Amino acid sequence: MKIIVIGATGTLGKKVSDAFAQKHEVIRVGNTRGDVQVDITSEASIKTMFEKTGPFDALISTTGKGPFAPIKEMTGETFKKGLLDKLLGQVNLVLIGQHYINKGGSFTLTSGILADHPVAAGAALSAVNGGLNSFVIAAAPELENGVRLNAVSPNVVEDSPAYFDSFPGEIPVSMDKVVKAFEKSVLGIVTGQVIKVY
Asked: Is 103 helix (H, G, I), strand (E, B) or coil?
């Protein structure tokens, strides 16, 4: 398969890319590095990326930023950054990518545990992750040509110790478990699913 991994140069994206590259052609896409570059907050940039990569069999997104900020300090502008980046950015990968993906292909987005288990200063990311999950569930049945759409929703991962204190009471999950969730989405038959790793 020809697999595009967005966010391939990040902690999670690198592991996912390396796992799939053992048996498949992987195009590693980053914001400033990788085989191809993309700014997911720009529809024009996303279209340019797909023109460069051409038809593909699977797209995995492990990218997207959102603000960590207490509600009393949160502003609409701060909140909107997460909506435009992690939420709309990943949604646009599907909306635009559906016109380039091969028959029977798949999209896999990344949401996160905060959709179900909120933490202090995480309201914006909870909203973004919940929005991504709802989009996947609602949009999957409308995709044509047997194209599937899922989200992987991981807990904080063992390889990101800097975030442990922000997730009190959570047991960090192994990268291998998260990679397996992406494999289930890409190589399996499920669609419209939020694959939770926690």
From this structure: strand
Angle ∠(120,127,93) on CA atoms, nearest 5:
130
| Residue at token pair 């595009």 | 4
Is this model's pTM higher than 0.90 or not? yes
CA distance 148 to 106: 4
Note the pLDDT tens digit of each residue in 51-96: 999 999 999 999 999 999 999 999 999 999 999 999 999 999 999 9
Which residues, including other chains, have CB under 8 Å from residue 171's CB and lie 6 or more apart? 155
How far is the C-alpha of 150 from the C-alpha of 194, rounded, in Å? 6
Is 182 within 8 Å of 6 (Cβ atoms)?
no
Q: Do 47 and 97 contact (CB within 8 A), yes or no?
A: no
